[in-house]
Amino acid sequence: MSASLSESSTGSTGAHKPYLKRKKSSLGETKIAILGYEVVGKSALSVRFLTKRFIGEYDHSAECKYKHSAIVDGENTAFEILDTRSLSGDCGAREDVLRWADGFMLVYSVVCRKTFEVLRDLHKKIEEFRRGTTVPIVIVGNKSDLAHMRQVTQEEGLKLAAELGCPFVELSASEDVTKVVEAFYTLCREIIDYKRRSRTFLDRVFGAFGREKPSS
Ligand SMILES: Nc1nc2c(ncn2[C@@H]2O[C@H](COP(=O)(O)OP(=O)(O)OP(=O)(O)O)[C@@H](O)[C@H]2O)c(=O)[nH]1
């Protein structure tokens, strides 16, 4: 398993210019954007997955893109992970991000109800942008270690995820690396399934036209 933190490209800190190009990824490549309100733990989750460490404080001024490779279900998988920065409550959902990613991790903090409440609109924005297609998404409730400050119950998280048709993981980036890995792998599996289904569909629709007729 290897992680590269060197490729942390950043958009400008102020107004973000679109800098992410949509390039179709292969089955073994997985492009994940981490979206969510300010301070929910987006950076903590990415860094925990990449390095297995919880650092505590992160640079909030920059958006970072990381590369990482791991074996998921026996297959070598190249992850690209975009740790977005939420500006003016946009949860990092800029157009270039929505176009670029294969799948999205929608993160809220269980100690802040507002961060949970924005997720329904965020989900709608993604689906509308991707023209009503089912986009691979995982919902993550972070900071479960802060039980005494909890404002969102696990049942509420499960209910929202069921309503939106997404897998759900509640975890603590600071205390549970296994669940953090599980959340990323779950999204990776959703993305691979989605790509396989799209290919099968395209094969059915266009396959016959693409094939040469056998010569008689
Ligand atoms: N107790 C606890 N604190 C956490 C956890 N995850 C993140 N934090 C803390 O929450 C704060 C925000 O974490 P970040 O990872 O910077 O959050 P972010 O969503 O990337 O923040 P922005 O980039 O500003 O939107 C930091 O002080 C982290 O140490 C967690 O699981 N438990």
UniProtKB/TrEMBL annotation:
Q: What family name appears in the similarity comment?
A: Belongs to the small GTPase superfamily. Ras family.
* UniProt name for this protein: small monomeric GTPase
Query: EC number(s) in its UniProt entry?
Result: 3.6.5.2
Q: Under the GO molecular function aspect, what terms does this record hold?
A: G protein activity
**SUPFAM superfamilies according to UniProt:** P-loop containing nucleoside triphosphate hydrolases
| Organism, scientific name | Sinanodonta woodiana (Chinese pond mussel)
Question: Keywords, A to Z?
Answer: Hydrolase
Q: Which PANTHER family match?
A: RAS-LIKE FAMILY MEMBER 11 (PTHR45704)
Which reaction(s) does the protein catalyse, per the Swiss-Prot or TrEMBL entry?
Answer: GTP + H2O = GDP + phosphate + H(+)
Note the InterPro entries from the entry: P-loop_NTPase, Ras-related_GTPase, Small_GTP-bd, Small_GTPase
Q: Which domain of life is it from?
A: Eukaryota
Pfam families hit by this protein: Ras
